[in-house]
Amino acid sequence: MTVQQISVFLENKSGSLVKVFRALSQAGIQLITSTLADTADYGVCRILCDNPDKAYSVLSQDGFSVTKTPVFAIALDDQPGRAADAIACFADGGISISYLYSFLYEGKGVLIFRTSDLDKAAALIAEKGLSEAKL
Amino acid sequence: MDYSPYFNPEFELLDRGQIEALQLKRLQDTMAHCYHGSPFYRKRLDSIGVKPESIKTLDDLRRIPFTTKQDLRDTYPFGIASVPLDQCVRLHSSSGTTGNPTVVLHSAKDLHEWANALARSLWMVGCRPEDVFQNTSGYGMFTGGLGFQYAAELLGMLTVPAGAGNTLRQLKFFTDFGTTVVHAIPSYAARLYEVMCQQGIDPRRDTKLKIMAIGAEPHSEDTRKRIEDMLGVKAYNSFGMSEMCGPGVAFECKEQNGMHIWEDYYIVEIVDPDTLEPVPEGEVGELVLTTLNREAMPLLRYRTRDLTRILPGKCPCGREHKRLDRMKGRSDDMMILKGVNIFPIQIETILAQYKELASDYLITLDTFEDNDGMTVEVELSDRANVDDYAALQNLNKDITRALRDEILITPKVKLVPKGSLPRSEGKAVRVKDLRKKY
To answer: Of A11, B171, B258, B301, whose CA is between 20 and 30 Å from B192?
Structure first.
């Protein structure tokens, strides 16, 4: 039901992000998407890729602080209003979303979100007939 | 009014011969008092066959074993005392909750002697009964509070026990009460000036400040000059430590060149911290002090861990009590920040309680806009969930609070990736001191 997302803890220092991406590329890992959020003192880079298990072990071995997190990936038609409909489902179903991002992938809109209510969210996705994105 | 330049001329004006004769007499008395009053000292002296009668000259001091901070911890809370507890009227204790704190006991006479030594020091730099003395130290266990309070009262000044912090109120007291003498840690002196500027107060025009006692925090000659320029005062370096009583152990005279250590109260030795042999006169080593007129808790050859030297030559002020140079550092890893003594192990013990943290950390002491502060960088462990910002921020807050509870100072905590802190020869560097000092 979920996909594995890799989160990497980074210092707010030039060059720290490039090390992550270089390490992944040297291991032959293909990125699907990534986001970077920062606070005053540090940043967290979230990555979806074609081989999260390998990405996790590569980055861990290279000494990065890494966490593997299950996130939901929903495929949506590339039409206005589809994302709003999907999010409304979760709001109505009482699922709290801790973060969300979206991108276009192979002609489809993809909505990625994180919630701690994994089982409830999975049940709701099935019930509403939302389709999972194939990444 | 015309006053003598000396508070205790009978002691301040002793020449070297007289000082040493008095020291021998008092050392013999102290040895007898410790031997008969303190099971700790008796056991230790008996184990090496030294008796009070063994002390025939001042050189015999070297037959007495050193006393260390660890001895104070091992005998926590009252085990080193040389009098029964009912003869004690006060204790001061160090802050640490990690391991045993150190406790210092005082009899009524001890408190009087402490006040006298510090009153003598304040008198030496020009404090007189007409002065208004404001103390910006925290009261309570920090000896800069009650220590200066009793001394200023004994000298006869009008005292304003303002306590620490609340800078606007401090400034109001300055202007309303006509404060002339202030005791402050150096970084707070700078803070006072900063707030004066914000409030449009010109210290020269709007206050009567003229003398400042600064201490409890390492600082440089430049820092002193800056404080003097900013506030229009003469600032005098004060040295003390709670084990000896508190402030008043040594104090600068008006020459501002070295702190006279009151040798009717203490025997000074400077030793090599590794060999524990005396260093040649004028060279830097660890300060070792023996108390000469304490009742409740005399300390024999106490290793202070402070590194300093005796300034050679005679002081033009006429006092022949030896002069200590500014403290050059520590022979252990203790840090002094805003008058608070902090050991890295205290911080390490707190950090070790968090599974999200790895074992490597770096403490940086730095000066920001005249304010000394501490940053603690700590590496995350593999068990930290780095995907969760809120959890990371809460972790940061929790650690900050726990550290503040332990060391009484709020550090800036920075979480850093594992393996990112500098290492030297494979060993992590624990403390970096970038403060303006020495």
So the answer is: B258
How confident is the model over B333-362, as pLDDT tens digits? 888 888 788 888 888 888 988 989 987 889
What pLDDT is attached to residue B438? 42
Q: Which residue of A has its CA nearest to B356?
A: A65
Beta bridge partners of B135: B183
Indicate yes or no: CB of A67 within 8 angstroms of CB of B417.
no
Q: What is the number of domains present in chain A? A: 2
Q: What is the DSSP string of B345-395?
A: HHHHHHHTT-TTEEEEEEEEEEEETTEEEEEEEEEE-TTS-TT-HHHHHHH
Longest distance between any two alpha carbons in chain B, whole Å? 73
CA distance A119 to chain B (A): 19
Is residue A83 located within the same domain as residue A53?
Answer: no
CATH number of B9-332: 3.40.50.12780
pLDDT digits (tens, 9 = 90+) for B266-313: 999 999 999 999 999 899 999 999 999 999 999 999 999 999 999 999
Predicted model pTM:
0.75
Best of A42, A57, A64, A115 to disrupt the B interface (most B CBs within 10 Å) is: A42
Contact A128, A89 (CB under 8 A): yes
Q: What is the pLDDT of residue B423?
A: 65
Chain A / chain B CB contacts < 8 angstroms: 53
Query: What pLDDT score does B381 carry?
Result: 87
The reply to whether domains B9-332 and B337-433 share a CATH topology is no
Identify all chain A residues contacting B419, using CB atoms and an 8 Å cutoff.
Answer: 63
As a whole number of angstroms, the distance between CA B105 and CA B80 comes to 9
Mean pLDDT for the stretch of residues A79-98: 90
Question: Of A7, A39, A41, which is closest to B387 when you measure between CB atoms?
Answer: A7
ipTM: 0.83
Question: Tell me, what CATH number does A95's domain have?
Answer: 3.30.70.260
* C-alpha closest to that of A116 among B301, B90, B391: B391
Å between B191 CA and nearest CA of chain A: 26
**Phi, psi of B312, deg, nearest 5:** -75, 160
What integer pLDDT is reported at residue B424 of this predicted model? Answer: 54
Asked if B104 and B291 count as a contact pair (C-beta separation under 8 A), the reply is no
Contact (Cβ atoms closer than 8 angstroms) between residue A65 and residue A22: no
Q: Do B386 and A65 touch (CB under 8 A)?
A: yes
Whether the per-residue pLDDT at B97 is higher than 70: the answer is: no
pLDDT mean over A94-102: 91
Flag whether residue B199 sits within 8 Å of chain A, measured between CB atoms.
no
* Facing A65 at nearest CB: one of B390, B414, B417: B417
Using CB atoms, which residue from A7, A11, A69 is nearest to B420? A11
Q: How many angstroms away from the CA of B380 is the closest CA of chain A? A: 7
The mean pLDDT value for B236-262 works out to 96
Using the Cβ of B181 and the Cβ atoms of chain A, whether some distance falls under 8 Å is answered with no
How big is chain B, counted in residues? 438
Domain span holding position A17: 2-69
